[in-house]
Design brief:
Layout lengths: L4 H8 L3 H9 L7 E2 L5 E2 L2 H13 L3
Antiparallel strand pairs: 1-2
Length: 58
């Protein structure tokens, strides 16, 4: 299952801009991209982001 950044934001409780910032700073792994250049997150991203965002100040 792959989801987009908005869905990941809802699941993790972070804002989309926060997820993009953490990716830019190298705190979170960059996701694959779709043919339309959307970020696509798999189960590993979802689990990892949820764990990491609990431990990163917002």
């Amino acid at each position: 299952m792959e989801i987009r950044i908005g869905d990941l934001a809802k699941r993790s409780g972070c804002e989309v801009v926060t997820i993009r910032y953490y990716e830019k700073e190298g705190l979170l792994q960059k996701p694959a991209r779709s043919g339309g250049n959307f970020r696509l997150y798999g189960e590993a991203h979802i689990e990892g982001y949820a764990w990491k965002t609990e431990n990163i100040p917002r």
